[in-house]
## 1
Amino acid sequence: MSFSLETPLSTALGASTAKTLDRAFGMTTVAELLGHYPRRYADRGELTPIEHLPIGETVTIVAEVLSTHPRMMKNRRGAMLEVVIGDGIGQMSLTFFAKNLGQAEWRAKELRVGRRGIFSGKVSVFNKRVQFAHPDYQLFDDDESAHRQADALQDVPIPIYPATSAMQSWQIAKVVGVVLDQLGDVHDPLSDDLRKREGLLTAREALMSIHRPHRRADIEPAVRTLRMHEALVLQTALLQQRNLIRSLVATPRAAASGGLLERFDASLPFTLTADQQRVGSEIAADLAASRPMNRLIQGEVGSGKTLVALRAMLQVAESGGQSALIAPTEVLAAQHLRSITKMLGPDASAELIPTLLTGQMSAPERRRAALRVASGQSLIVIGTHALLSEKTTFADLALVVVDEQHRFGVEQREMLRAKGTAPHAIVLTATPIPRTVAMTVFGDLDTSVIQTMPAGRAGISTFVAPLAEHPEWFQRVWDRSGEEIAQGRQVFVVCAAIDTASDSVEADDAPPPEDVEGRGPRWGVVQLDQLLATHPVLGSVRRAILHGKMPSDEKDAIMRAFARGEIDMLVATTVIEVGVDVPNASTMVVMDADRFGVSQLHQLRGRVGRGGVPGLCLLVTEAEAGTPARERVEAVAATLDGFELAEVDLELRGEGDVLGAAQAGAKSSLRLLRVVKDAGLIAYARDIAADILRDDPMLTGHPGLRVAIQERVSDEDRAALSKN
């Protein structure tokens, strides 16, 4: 029996092993298993002698079992097995823990004296002896062939796979081997002409060489081939999505002379920036066309993206079309409703009836709002994920606006679009996206950029408060905040956690960066508010707290009060990260600033300096100078240019982290491709994909590419690629 890439792992490996692989890595097919590439390779010449093993590092050695000693543990339940191994020069111990003595004895039989193999683990010291605790190992087949196999390792690289405690590297290598032994024909995404022109391997050869290289020289051609596969498959899938949208027929929504849009523009007390005018013209032309618009608008914090989106809504409303704006949080949705209503003025608001629809509204409120939406009475609808509910229907949904795209996936965007007949779509993001990432992640969208800022902004000054070197600056941060409040201004204070005592971290906060030495946030909203209550000045100011676990109506009431100037200092989590507009807020204090990413710090900073009041951003950190965490904070303080920061972010974090869930997801279509290093390849693959689809839109003449897209780029993958 031969296997194809579509063969279920339960068929290829049996139900038990398939279940383990699914649980550990989310794998269900042969294609997904063979797409789990080795993370590195070891070979005999590079294997470290026992006597030179570096403490604390993960290493691989070839050694022989010298003794085994299974026994029950004295001071805790269970048993353990201690194995002594040697490489002919030095010795070390392997320690395995087991639930009972029987399990320990079973492993001792496997690791019997005289067996040789490959052992890999993290080096530690116990009782003055070097050891591996629960190492990954792979024994040679039998004693007679041990020396022959060891000698063969001199030239044959040993694949080391990303592993878990349930499925170690040698076990993955073993099941990969089972599948490769019975692998049949493999669909090739590349045509014969393209493959030969680029000097690449066949798909089957590439899979064999990356998992079973005979020598080091076999690996590079395999990786180069599979990178091209990933680039071409992804770019073809994105262009297919774009072409699918463009093939639909949309109702043209041209602006009328003297209509809502023209009257709105005439009522504005300011002139649109050059970028707003240019992007507005692009949108107006898209809306007047008979195919759906699918446009990404990138713009700095405070650059006026919402105004541009509102003008599109007005153009759509002139023909009776409805617009739906979906926001990631209740606070932001409510903020959008207030700002849009204010911009429209009483007359236009009465005509358009902007309506809020969120999951936290009371049942009667939600029913009334849903009725206004379903009847078409409301032409501008603003909400959260509640807009995606099956119960939410529209009379004539003509425009979908997705705010802060990095909080949503393609699936949510398309779910909302499905509630209309080929509606237009605008995607907004204040998180600047490097060109290479935009090309990889948002390749199905046309892109517009707003870089110029509206006139009258006083600007923002950003400073790092490095408590590691200057602990006395902690007090100065609060004195400076008090000075701003004394001048009639308002202050935001942001913490990474709600309550450090209970480890309550906001669900939508960025996870703690790996370089923050494993400690949790020093300050939570609860703890900091308690401290500020004892401050000689700030203890008596009008202070409030805000976080994501508070009831929706309470959060909204606090934000309204802060916007009205009734609260001097707001101590909050990143629930205020996007969209909150309080022109009188002059100061942003970010506690544990090293726990936030570059783009998130830039977003937070954008909450101040939005009016005529100069903005001040204080980034408080205990990170040591020279650490990656400190570099990240200092990079934000060094520039206000979000697009420059996006490139800095790539350099500091690496493209794997920038792609977020796209890289972390087990089923991600990006495994070998790196969007920075492989930018040229991605662009080249996009050109090839465009040529292929122009001549063969259904891929009937490219069956291998069609099958590869079906296998590798699921809806979940595309959604993951959008969650940046």
Note: The chain has 27 helices and 23 strands.
## 2
Amino acid sequence: MTAELVRGQNHVLPQTRLEIRISAGAPVVAGATLGDEHGTVHGVERIAHPGSPQLPGLEVSRQAAADHRLAVDLDALPEGVHRVTVLLALPLEAGGPARFGAVAAPFVAVTGLEGTEIATFTLTGLDSESAVTALELYRRQGAWKVRAVGQGYAGGLAEMLADQGVDRAAELAGSIQEAVARGLARSVSPPPPRTPEGDRVRHPARPAPAQGGGQPPAGQPPVGPPADRQPETPAAVPSGPIDYAHPRRQSAAPPPPPPAAPPTGPGQPAQPVAGDATGWSMDERLYNQIWGMFEDLARATAAYRSAVDFAESRMDQELERTLSDPRSRIGGTGDLAREQARAKRDELTGRAREALDRDLAQLAAESAVVEPALPAPYAGWDNPVWHAYRVPMEIPMALRIGDLHLPESAALRIPLLVRLPLQRGIWIDSGRPASEAAALTDGDQLHRLAMESAVLHAARLLAVYPAGEFSVHVIDPAGSASAALAPLVRSGVLAGPPASGAGGVSSVLAQLTRRVDLVQMAIRAGAADSLPPDLDPAEQLLIVNDFPHGFDDRAVNQLRYLADEGPSVGVHLLMVADREDASAFGPVLDPLWRSLLRITPVADDHLADPWVGHAWTYEPLTTPPGSRVLELVLDRVAAARSGGPR
């Protein structure tokens, strides 16, 4: 039976190989310290955190996330360790919550490797604290116990680490937050939380995957950075709690999802249905359904990986016990024990794979129904919906910028959707990522593919906005991207010719910086209607090629300003750059890179989901070979802008 602990209560641990599962209402940093009998931590080498996630007998998550799974083997801890203290802290990200009182109470569960809960603890009563000691595993008279702690620290990680006797605690806390910031830069922002009326409908044939971490209860505060915020107008700026509601949405209850098709026979699964989620429109239902599929696949894979790890560890333990007995080395006893241990491992692994295959089959069937039903903003370039494209009258909820898949299910692709209007810039990395696809591509070709990918993203953004409500500027200092930019230039959809040379860079940056300044001042003064008549009210996208070539210190500062302040007033950044090329600027550009969503022009496994933190392989969107769909779409955008047919 699970022990539901309250602050200060303890419980005996029946086993020494454990998982600690954490669910929170917002991304949190999870770590652990190894202390002596007095709780003192002797050195940074006894602290597991995202920058150093593995210690003997202990492994923590590598990034901030709403859900965590910490692995603990109490028998493998270093000698002299009597206490394992689990720590939670809020990441220092711009726009994120600064205190635990502003998020839902974190929930911590201590489980066996098979997922059975041993003890749980809900950290209630937190307010101004930004770091908290959640619980501790401690050794008393030869037995291990768990104690619910819930001690918060308003001074954050530094104060908490100092309380455990860690030297130079502030410096260590800073390095931990820096490691977290690097992880956040590659994380996929979660969708807005779903209310009880907006929960995804699950068919009986596909139960919620187990062992993948708990889903935060409905009604929690918004999860994730303000990239998901959808302002009413391009000039809106964040103030107060983030509002995830669609700006043109009424306040009545959403309509129910369409009824599922009846089962094909007794005991047969219900047939998948496109739009199998609640929402105010079919587009929103499909959006929620795609994110539901994404989460289902993440958690089903986590359950499979956990089961495989458990099977391997169980085999290792059985072999260790057998081989430690000298009698097993006589005759065939040892060989028989090895065969039996491997057979048990194979049986457990096979059952786990069967469960995963069932989930994958259901998700694949759902994907086969959903993909053809997607509207243009959610669809790949090979979807026939683009051939019937017409310029829309209003912006959609989201835009597809690529596909994601995992190695256990490479054929199952989940669309990567980002909310609109964009409030997080995009960085297309033209450097060489550590992937097989990049290894087969030379540097010049990678840069060409990166710029072509930027053009495709710009075309999609132009296509999903109403005519005249989105403008694209290009900075190409050396003119090296003229071939890739040809579709945008030929169709006449750019706000002006691509800017080249130092003068062109300075002119475009000055124009967009002025726009940000004027809109911000007008809003603060409550005079949004008094903007200069020459100011373009449309959303603005700046494509920057070959950064930092052609950028002096002043231009770099302007670019950083646009990345930080531009999204809130409708100015967005799309950079094509190799970070190594900007290394001469040192750490001054680190906040710039972290503020952007990094994607690649070739397949690369660098993005993490917001639930269990798998490394997902990102596949960029491309047009089919020989297709003229890009020219068709851009021509219709240009015609609509000139007053022609939509």
Note: The longest strand covers residues 17-35.
## 3
Amino acid sequence: MNLSWSQQALTRRRTLAAATGLAAGALLPTGPALAAAAQYTNPVIWQDFADIDVMRVGDTYYASASTMHYSPGAPVLRSYDLVNWEIAGHAVPSLDFGAKYDLNGARGYVRGIWASSLAYRPSNRTFYWLGQIDFARTYLYTATAVEGPWSRLTTISTPYYDAGLLVDTDDTLYVAYGNTTISVAQLSRDGRTQVRTQEVFRTPSSVGTLEGARFYKINGQYYIFLTRPANGQYILKSSSGPFGPYTMRQVLLDLRGPIPGGGVPHQGGLVRTQSGAWYYMAFVDAYPGGRMPALAPVTWTADGWPVVQLVDGAWGTTYPRPAVPTPPRQVTPMTGVDTFDGTSLKPRWEWNHNPDNTRWSVGNGLTLRTATVTHDLYWARNTLTHRIQGPTSTATVQLDHSAMRDGDRAGLALLRDSSAWIGLKRDGGATRVVTVTGLTMDGNWNTTGTGTEVASAPVSGGRVWLRANADIRPGAPRPGTFSYSTDGITFTRLGPAFSMGNDWRFFMGYRFALFNHATQALGGAVRVTRFEVSTP
């Protein structure tokens, strides 16, 4: 389906009719003064981190994002300047919400961690993550450091859909949530139970759908920041307390974004720097790669409404860098080399559903022992994923396949609801390197294609290098290409280019994925001794 970005309503409950409107905002000055200033470029993170909730604690900025069916869930990002970010940890250590998140008789694709909230409570120096799962209940996790350990504090029977958590100045915890009908809940002092909940706003039919709540108290006023998926942002304001009444104002609608071919920046949250400047971190729909965070300055009107600062009538591709103290250190890059040293995976990695922890290990490389007997990669446990760096990047894997067994399949995939991979097939005692395309799902995330081999070559020895290049710029042709090497120096292209899908309904963007599964019997293994994501 080919829809314009303003027509692609990403509400999870119904499609929003297309609408028009004017982008509101003041223009930033242009000319030599602006050009001379240190600048940053949008997107500030060209990786898939959607539904951002952003905040500052002291001199450090933190953000959380959606991860759907990937585990661990709810990554926590850290920055010292709002521009350069690292992945510090995950607020949800395991998706222990039912067997479908283990690929055990059912699957949790496009379920799990949706838009959720991250907050800090100064009174007990604790971070809080809050989110609903499967429209059934809400989970609240806490930690005293974002690296963890995170532990579940409570489960609340009310599912706070697309929630925003507010720690008020009197230390009371409030949650704004809902789709179209927006409610506010008050939690108990210890955060474990709901004290009350009340509808505070019903979206006018002229606007359609509002969701993705973020909850703030600014200068004594209460604000609920809401998205109109996928092309608008609105805000509610109350001068009478957290339960309203609220009045509404449009922040932006159909605003040109900073990624060519991408969508309108929306959702996300507001954050204030140490010097008092305000910024809005939104995401931009930019499939096939996903939803990319973008940052813009915000000013406030005299009567207390936020205004996004525009450049030539659009969300700027560049802006002056935020004025912040000198960072205490450089953040850890989200790309580069991983040799899987140490005793745990680095936080840039997430599994496709929960892994079987008895069948993988790190230290002297990553060992993946077969955990599933299947011909369907979408059912295979212990597939390890890594976000693709945009606009183009290359993943290269050094793989020891000497312990594979007949029927095993191992390799490097471009993973989404339409997938392809390069890897090894071992059959009848012989090993071939192959490229496979045609792994597909339908709109209910059932497998409709398990793949077709489109190219192959024999390999000998026990080691091979596999490479996948991904061009995730929106538009055509969105190619993914595969190659292999037997010496790590000379690479041979294998198979035609794979055109990555750009439908938004899977929500998460393409990922590089390492996999090893059996088609006959368990017992085989591969070892990844080096993984690198590089950019041109």
Note: The radius of gyration is 23 Å.
## 4
Amino acid sequence: MALLLGVDTGGTYTDAVLIRDERDVVAKAKALTTRQDLAIGIGRAIRDVLQQSGEAAAGIGLASLSTTLATNALVEGQGGRAGLIYIGFRATDLEGHGLDKALAGDPALVLAGGHSHAGSEAMPLDEAALYAWLETVRDVSAFAVAAQFATRNPAHELRAAEIVRRVTGKPVSCSHHLSAKLNGPKRALTALLNARLIGMIAGLIDRAEGTLRDLGIAAPLMVVRGDGALISADQARERPIETILSGPAASIVGARWLTGADHALVSDIGGTTTDVAVLRGGKPMIDPAGAQVGPWRTMVEAVAMRTTGLGGDSEVHVEDEGLQGGIRLGPQRLVPVSLMAFEAPGPVHDALDEQLRRAVPGEHDARFVRAVTGIDASGLSEREETLLSRIGATVHPLGAVLKTRLDGQALRRLVARGLVQVAGVTPSDASHVLGRLTEWDANAATKALQLLGRKRTGSGTMLCPDPVAFAQLIVDQLTHQTSLALLETAFAEEETPFDLAPDLLARHVLMQRGLAGHKGLVRLETGLNVPVVGLGASAPSYYPDVGKRLGCRMILPDHAGVANAIGAVVGRVTIRRSGTVTSPTEGKFRVHLDTGPEDHTEAEAAMTALQAALELEARKQADAAGAEDIHVQASRALRTAQAEGREVFLEAEITVEATGRPRVAA
């Protein structure tokens, strides 16, 4: 029986698991994620799992990777510099639809061209302006092309992409390849984010495949898509944005495999995010509006999931306004002080001890910085280059490298580019202080919490000078914010909606008093009415209290810490393709294909032609993804209207789904 290898690269840990013939977990292992080169952590985890199992690498018939890299990159504002070519739209659309914010200073060109709703050319493509603009663009890793009504006729996107590749040799992301739906600005955003991720994901896949070869594993590499399905490594290179929510989607597949749960909330806590989704009938819900990660609503098909910047490595913020003060967690991820001290004990402990000797707390106490080697540093400003050089290859107290406020802005940019890591107090440090975790340096964590707890509230008193009490305060805050994330998801997925937004409902005084079991003149009892499957390495540390808080059954399955890696390899290959038939004039039925519009005189003939083209493409893509025993099914959604007593065809959308088992090498 073949061995299946699943690997998940999280924000803190990289997990590996060996499964025999999709039934038994043979071995599992964890290694620290090496963000400067993820393949190093992947190699360590695979070596450990092979050593534990005693199995030969040659016996592995399939390897599959799920990754939070794309998700975390979008949440943290990381990724390569990308150029956007925006065809047939207005310049004001860049600002009005949030594209200006997404560009964040990257180059963009608004170009004449585009098509009509019916697929006819609205204006010729201004190729001369495109050639001239490309001569001015520097330090761009990839380009995105989005044209008006490209899903009706992609000719201008394809031509612009051809020119960009010929002139620059850079990868190009076309919006119509990522979604068959209308809404040009949203497709443009999706294409831009995809372009920004191309280099990052391609680098990960290349290094992962190299690691597999070095270890003697000849099996093909699959990658988990955001809806939990598997795709080939080549497909993931071309469309890396489809891997956003890859890790969370794999965790849902893994949760179902581990527990058999049919109706539950699944909550997966990692180092950077907490991801919550709903299982109904044993299947995750697909978000009809497209995946949202951080501030970005994309057109990527993915599980309906709420991703919150809350994890074991979330930054602990001290709120010093008001008399009481308090703390909040996230959304930014920091390297835990306990981990930084584990890797560089001398510089960290020396700085912590010096800061503790000072009578007055400093602004940057218990915070450290280090550069990440091996990352492309092109396109930096002079100040950013100077700061990066000042940081160098060693660990420094943050206050020692920030000379001015402008340095702080430069540091944020370096962190966003992945060139620098900042360490500070996190829930992982609190867990080390409380003895719930023991992997890293608990002594450094204690010193860091003591320093942060000395900060003063608005009343002038210290926030919490006792590090053990402060650690419990942090864990309690994590419990509170996790409970809110679960409640928001539950309210958002209620079949009968409420009048308020899910986040307002979760925080409503009646909801919160009900969780506490208020009994006065009014009795209030609230909570979750379904079980929660808690996943993630730190779930056993935090989630029992979450279950008590919400009054629900908390399921913490065996192997919950590697559920993502399990889900990465027990999923199926699924390819969906959609297309549209319109009726531009009476008696004409237009099929919108990648090769351009195709007209028919009968609606049924047009729909049959579209379905045949979609089935052929879906089956071809499923085979390329490494599927076998492929099954294809199609669905049609027709829009009609009544006119003069007869039914008139308006539009039809056809969706084809090809599914199959991943092909396992003998």
Note: The longest strand covers residues 627-643.
